[in-house]
Specification:
Shape: globular
Order of helices and strands: HEHEHEHEHEHH
Low-confidence stretches: 3-12
Distance between the termini: 38 Å
Number of domains: 1
Strand order of the largest sheet: 2-1-3-4-5
Number of strands: 5
CATH topology: Rossmann fold
Mean pLDDT: 86
Helix content: 40-55%
CATH class: Alpha Beta
Largest sheet: 5 strands, parallel
Radius of gyration: 14 Å
CATH architecture: 3-Layer(aba) Sandwich
Strand content: 15-25%
Number of helices: 7
Length: 143
């Protein structure tokens, strides 16, 4: 990506947050973001994600649906409380656990992908995920 485009992206988008306790995968996501000129801060627990969100409201929150102890409904509710503007929520999980993916959609995640597709689309989609939500997306209710 050209340096000018990287600076434009950086100036129009805020940070993203990643909830994952998989260090190798975390490195892949943060490295891809860095190569695109974006900032993704990683957290290993929901409480750590919320603490980071309080410091600077994220444009996007990426969630590993297999993170230990994740209560998705509680996390999404608390994010809504601490963020002045609702961030886009992107979740990924195992393609064989269709019930988990379906539950994430029902809980209010904006984008839910099998992990393999998430990895496949990461470089191309990350900048769009960091873009501000359109009004109809921001007003959308879960359920």
């Amino acid at each position: 990506m050209e340096p000018v485009l990287k600076r434009v992206l950086r100036s129009t988008m805020s940070q993203g947050l990643l909830l994952s306790d998989d260090l190798i995968f975390t490195s892949r996501v943060t490295g891809t973001a860095r190569a695109l000129g974006l900032t993704v801060k990683a957290a290993r627990s929901a409480e750590a994600v919320l603490a980071l969100a309080r410091q600077e409201a994220p444009a996007c929150v990426v969630l590993d649906l297999h993170n230990p102890g994740l209560d998705l409904a509680v996390l999404l509710g608390r994010l809504a409380e601490v963020c002045p503007t609702r961030p886009r929520v992107v979740a990924y999980g195992s393609h064989v656990e269709t019930a988990v993916l379906k539950a994430a959609r029902a809980a209010g995640c904006d984008i839910v992908l099998p992990r393999s597709r998430f990895v496949e689309e990461l470089s191309d989609s990350l900048p769009a995920w960091f873009a501000p939500l359109r009004p109809q997306e921001a007003d959308r209710t879960s359920g």
